[in-house]
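WARN retry 2 of 3 for item q-0093 after timeout on previous attempt; input resubmitted unchanged.
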Amino acid sequence: MTSIKQWCKALNENKWFQHFITFIILLNCLFIGIETYKSIPAITLCQNIILGIFTFEIIVRYIAADGPVDFLKSGWNIFDTLLVLISFIPENIFGGGSSLLALRVLRVFRVLRLLRSAKEIRLIVNVLVKSMSALFYNVIFFFVFVYLFAIIGVGLFRLPDPEKLDEAGKVKWEQYQEIAPNAPTNSPDPFGTLGEAFFTLFRELTGEDWTDVRYNLVTASDMGLIKVSPTVITTYHVLWFILSAFLLLNLVVGAIVNNYQVVMEKSREEDEKEKEKQEKEKLKE
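OK item q-0093 returned
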């Protein structure tokens, strides 16, 4: 048993074996893409062989670890094991429908195994994981401002219900629809509901058509459909874009960059310690 454990450790640490697994992951990604066009028996057979290789790799890593607790300490081991186990679930037990579709989608997540193929990529993932706690509070801070602006937007810019307008109001409404239709035309009133206002603010945050929303509201103001001046409309949208795009997003970026520096420094320290340890072992020999 000891010899098997040593063999598994040596194999798991072997660079050529790691390169082989990376190649298999890339091949698996290629086959997953091909299967979106056509299902071929030969590709299905290759996918089964790849699944066998992945299973073998998980077993090697498990044996190489110092027990189940040591194996489960690594989030990557848990992640890879779950992906492999999901792949063993037969499709015919669902018989079709949404459950089968969900299973196929989960199997596609095997592509994410590429994230552990390089040390640099693993560092980036670690940065994102470590940033979650800081991002959580940033998200709360961001949500407070989104909620505030959404309520203000609904209160100021919600267009009237055409069914409740008089004849003159309906004429103005029809003219407004011709002059300033929503973009796209099948979209509802941007500030008609609180939920839609949330989405509108998110869309403006990305820079998508936020000026069009402003121009349409100015047109509605000129036609008397909303009782807000163009100055207030412009101030609202410019203020939101500045606040969200330049302040709130930079808070998120700052948190990630700060954690990236921390993780990189920790990684350098670990590399230096590993080098010192290897040098000491060489001197002892």
